[in-house]
Amino acid sequence: MNNARSSKWFQAPGYYGFSRRAWLRSEGHPADMFDGKPIIGICNSWSEMTNCNAHLRDVADAVKRGVLAAGGVPLEFPTISLGEMFMAPTTMMFRNLMAMDVEESIVANPMDGVVLLCGCDKTTPAQLMGAASANIPSLMVTGGPMIAGEWRGEELGSGTDGRRLFDMFRAGKISEEEWCEVESCIARTAGHCTVMGTASTMTSLAEALGMTLPGCANIPAPDSRRMAMAEISGRAIVEMVEKQRLPSQIMTRKAFENAITMLMALGGSTNAVIHLIAIARRLEVDITLDDFDQISRKTECIANIKPSGKYLMEQLFVAGGIPAVMNRVSDLLHTDAITANGKTIGENIANAKPLNDNVILPRDKPLYAEGGIAILRGNLAPSGAVIKPSAGSPELLQHRGKAYVFNTRDEMMATIDNEDLPIDKDTVLVMRNCGPKGAPGMPEWGLIPIPKKLLMQGVNDMVRISDARMSGTSFGTVVLHVAPESAIGGPLGIIQTGDEIILDVPARKLEVVLSDEEIAARMAKFKPAPPVYPRGYKRLFLDHVTQAEEGCDFDFLMPGYKG
């Protein structure tokens, strides 16, 4: 069997080969465990600080069974884990750190292949980024979505329905007791959010890229089929090592175009735009915002899943999951793209017919006529911005209104519910200094709350603009990732309260009604703020993070970086 990489450690002549075998035998392994067998690393992002991934130790055990059955030697190792709900200031600050951890752990240790165990939002792209750079045979096993909550006869999607009900609580439409009931039942199992948030999006796109076995992404976390899939994946990685099937051979330009098509068909998270660009650039695949917009214009959004639609991830799995969605849009895909199991996308999805047309909608009756995400440009976003029109209000997708500007999130949170806030339903709420360097870390602050005075009037959506990100579980007419960000001198930084802003999603336009001369005059007065972090990893982040349209990766992790 193929153990060419690990044999350099364990079959090395002299003292070091002996000592490595002896030290690993101290864990209770017999001598013949390393006699020509491939070593399979199991990269586990389990953590009790990451509730989405809290079951991954059990998933790892299932993978080990598969590896052993196929004649390999499984060795589990940990990396840092990124818990979206708990980490401050944002997990996005640490995605690149986890990617470095994954890459260096793979490169520095004696493994011939690796299985990546992921779930929560940033763990999936971080592992794919690290594996792409390490470029040894790699296979992803996702943790799966949690089971839906239920409250007073209503199915609850974690994140999305929590935000909706919280607005009702703020408006006095839900009592304190009812709100406590929601807290007790909205997240009732391990697993990531059960809506098409960032976690569900990225695990689904990992499958679309070909980096999981077919049907892996959407199996619910507590479902016994999750463990069966993990064991089968353990067997599959041994074959991948034998065939030397590498991430660079799977995650090609065609694979990324397939993933973007699926992002649009699924109505997936805007965060995926940043993550896919980052993963692609690790492999020198040049994916740009223009690719997303071109594919969006020809791809219908057909997954009727919250926050864009009605159903939850469990229903998508029962309806056929990612293979069924890919089957429905197969004419838009590169079906000859090779996947982890050695077969093409076309072979994998040939018989995966959708089983419920209410969940996976027919192409002639889509949820949204174009893809779930659109790319905007204009004098307010010269390098681009993103919006998720499938989760917005149709009447606001073409809108002109006066800006009300918040300089920071702290300012916004301190004043958003003031009764004398000079805004109405047509106001465009603008928040700046929330990007990669400005926040810093580009947190999920983009969903500016509807001001309480408007909530009381029945207003449930407004146009909101920022250089922040937004949770994939969120909804509304929200413009995000405005680039260049305000903190480095982007035009968002010179907007003043009262300026008129034009949003035109069909025309892909985001503009402020100012002359070029006025914009230039205001920009000339810009002064960047001093760094908020003087030392450590966070200072490294500030010094080297790229902008949103470049994937927010570190410049020195790009192939060809010369310093």
What does this structure look like?
The protein has three domains: 38-147 and 189-349, Response regulator (Rossmann fold); 149-185, no CATH class; 374-549, IlvD/EDD C-terminal domain-like (Glucose Oxidase, domain 1, 3-Layer(bba) Sandwich), CATH 3.50.30. It is globular and about 75 Å long. The longest helix is centred in the middle third of the chain and has 20 residues, at 224-243. The protein has 563 residues and is an alpha/beta fold. Helices cover 35% and strands 13% of the residues. α8 (198-209) runs antiparallel to α11 and α11 (253-266) runs antiparallel to α12 (271-282). The protein has an eight-stranded mixed sheet. It has a four-stranded parallel sheet with strand order 2-1-3-4, with helices on both faces. It has helices at 7-10, 15-25, 56-69, 92-108, 123-134, 160-170, 176-185, 198-209, 224-243, 247-250, 253-266, 271-282, 289-297, 313-318, 321-328, 345-349, 409-415, 452-455, 516-524, 536-544, and strands spanning 39-44, 73-78, 113-118, 138-142, 149-151, 154-156, 374-378, 381-387, 398-406, 428-431, 464-466, 478-483, 500-504, 509-512.
Short structural description:
The longest helix has 20 residues, at 224-243.
Strand content: 5-15%
Helix content: 25-40%
CATH class descriptor name of the largest domain:
Alpha Beta
CATH topology grouping of the largest domain: Rossmann fold
Instruction: List the total number of helices.
Output: 20
The overall pLDDT, averaged over residues, is 96
Rg from Cα: 24 Å
With strands numbered from the N-terminus, the spatial order across the biggest sheet is 7-8-12-11-10-9-13-14
The major beta sheet can be summarized as: 8 strands, mixed
The total strand number stands at: 14
Number of domains: 3
- Oligomeric form of this entry? single chain
Unreliable residue stretches: none
The end-to-end span amounts to 40 Å
- Give the CATH architecture of the largest domain: 3-Layer(aba) Sandwich
- What would you give as the CATH superfamily of the largest domain? Response regulator
